[in-house]
Design goal:
The chain is mainly alpha-helical. 67% of the residues lie in helices and 3% in strands. It has helices spanning 8-15, 19-27, 51-65, 69-78, 80-102, 108-115, 119-127, 140-154, 168-190, 196-205, 207-231; strands spanning 38-41, 44-46. Strands 1-2 form a two-stranded antiparallel ribbon. A hairpin with a 2-residue loop joins strand 1 and strand 2 (44-46). Helix 1 (8-15) crosses helix 3, helix 3 (51-65) packs across helix 5 (80-102) and helix 5 packs across helix 10 (196-205). The longest helix has 25 residues, at 207-231. The mean pLDDT is 88.
């Protein structure tokens, strides 16, 4: 006769989660809907092989998304496939970001030479978290920021007029909430709706137009605000 499922020890081994944790998930109603577990005695039960991936997903939502179990239960009850798709999409986005991050880095000496920005300015921007150089130097986004700082300084935005690296913080702080909302929106609309590879392509293709959109909206609002002040 075929076995009706997995023993608890087998479930724990395949999922990489301890038997004690799995039993806690069961008590919290995260796994069994009341009919999936086959109980043959008080101390013996068989568990569906599908529990393996479900347990792994629950553990990832706990450890990587810091979700409490009550929230995870709602997610699992509503659409576990979508939760899995969301995690896969986030993983792929991170993989691409890490790969891009490691390509074409420039060290501090080259950044100073290329953009003619004082080294102490770069160091202060790093201290503020505006730049995040790694062991191999500055990545492409860091260099775009350095290039912009160089153009600001060349145009007269320098310390003599009170412009310092601390002015960059207002932009980082203002953009923080926008970026968080943008990520939530992207993941919510793409996860489970399109193939992961296509979703990653869509997000990547939007990076440059998004920069242009933010720049254009900022420019338009800046001119409108200057006109308003001129009319006061």
């Amino acid at each position: 006769m075929s076995r009706p499922g997995l023993k608890m020890s087998e479930l724990a081994e395949r999922s990489g989660v301890s038997a004690g944790t799995i039993k806690h998930y069961l008590r919290e109603g995260l796994l069994d809907d009341g009919g999936e577990v086959v109980r043959t005695s008080r101390n013996m039960a068989w568990y569906p092989p599908a529990f393996v991936e479900r347990i792994r997903l629950i553990k990832r939502l706990q450890e990587e998304r810091y979700m409490p179990l009550r929230v995870i239960k709602d997610v699992m009850d509503a659409d576990p496939a979508r939760a899995a798709a969301l995690l896969e999409l986030e993983d792929r986005i991170r993989e691409r970001a890490v790969a891009a991050d490691e390509n074409g880095r420039v060290d501090a000496d080259e950044a100073v030479r290329r953009y003619e920005v004082p080294r102490n300015v770069l160091e202060r921007l790093g201290d503020l978290g505006v730049l995040t150089p790694g062991e191999e130097g500055y990545d492409a986004d860091d260099l775009r920021i350095v290039a912009a700082i160089a153009r600001f300084r060349a145009g007269g935005y320098d310390e003599r007029l009170g412009f310092t690296v601390f002015d960059t913080l207002r932009y980082r702080e203002a953009l923080g909430a926008l970026v968080q909302e943008e990520v939530r929106t992207l993941l919510d609309r793409l996860a489970g709706e399109v193939e992961v590879d296509r979703a990653v392509e869509i997000i990547a293709s939007g990076a440059e137009p998004l920069r242009e959109l933010i720049g254009a909206v900022h420019s338009k609002m800046l001119r409108a605000e200057l006109r308003r002040h001129g009319g006061d």
